[in-house]
Structures are given as C-alpha cells and as structure tokens.
Design goal:
This protein has one domain. Helix content is 59%, strand content 0%. The protein has helices at 19-27, 31-35, 39-58, 72-81, 87-95, 109-122, 127-152.
Length: 157
C-alpha cells in the first residue's frame, strides 16, 4: 500500500445475538434485516416476499397438508411454514380453517372436505402458478433468515 492511501474500514458493530434477527425475519420477512440496521434492504425484502405470497394466494395456490402417504408433503408444508405466521392466511384461503394434516382415515368426513376444497382450486387455470408462488415465498424467507444470521454473526455486511 502506498503512503498516501488510506485503508477504509467499516465501523465495528456491537455483537448481536444471531437468533433474535432470525426469529424476527421469520415473524415478518425483512424484519431481521431492519433490526440489524439494514432498513432499506429489509423493506425491499418485505415487499418482494409479501408480493410473491399475495400472488400465490390470489392465483389459487393451496397450502400443503402433511400426508403420511406422500412424503414430499412434509417438505412442502415446512416450506409453507417458513413464511412465518402470515402463513395462516393461506390455510384459511385454501381450507377455510387452520389445518396442517390430512386425516389418516379416508372415510373421515374432514378428509373428504379438505380433498374437495383442494380439487376446486386445482381446477383453476392458475393453480400451479399459485402453488409455485407460495412455495417460492417460503424459500425466499428461508434465505432471508439465513442472510440475517450471517449479518448478525459478521460473516457478511
């Protein structure tokens, strides 16, 4: 380095418990970044994830249900939960109530009701797009949670 060059360093940030921004990012996408002082970034993330989630709901996407006969439903349901508490809205939009598991007994009238509600959505031309948007919103929020963790642990700015 030459004598006239000045090394630029970012100001030292006080240590932050990394779990607090992670929890905040799960509660509301972007909130973890806002907590860490990245206000503009957090607001952009909130807008993008919220828009994706709303597009999924308005496009007749369906929240996933756990079904022991279909193992991939566990991943899809976990992904739905990654969006945070706002995910409850997709459950009410899809099933009219808060439900996470398909009843194991096929003769159960609740199973028939849930299946019929999903079938009505599947008949929609935009159903697959809606599902994709809902799943993408959850995946994006998982990445935001990990990003907030990395910022809190000073792995990145």
């Amino acid at each position: 380095m030459s004598e006239g060059a000045v090394e630029k360093t970012s100001p030292a940030r006080a240590p932050v418990d990394p779990w607090a921004p992670c929890l905040l990012a799960w509660l509301l996408p972007g909130l973890g970044h806002i907590y860490l002082g990245k206000k503009r970034r957090g607001l952009v993330f909130l807008a993008v994830v919220a828009a994706t989630f709303c597009l999924g709901i308005s496009s007749n996407g369906a929240a996933s249900l756990l079904d022991p006969r279909q193992p991939l439903t566990y991943l899809a349901t976990f992904d739905n939960l990654a969006i945070g508490p706002v995910e409850v809205l997709s459950r009410y939009a899809t099933y009219g109530r808060l439900v996470y598991r398909m009843p194991s007994d096929e003769a159960d009238p609740r199973a028939a009701d849930l299946t019929e509600r999903v079938r009505r959505r599947v008949r929609s031309v935009t159903f697959e797009y809606g599902n994709t948007f809902l799943l993408t919103a959850g995946l994006m929020n998982m990445l935001l949670i990990l990003d907030a963790f990395d910022i809190a642990t000073a792995r990145k700015d």
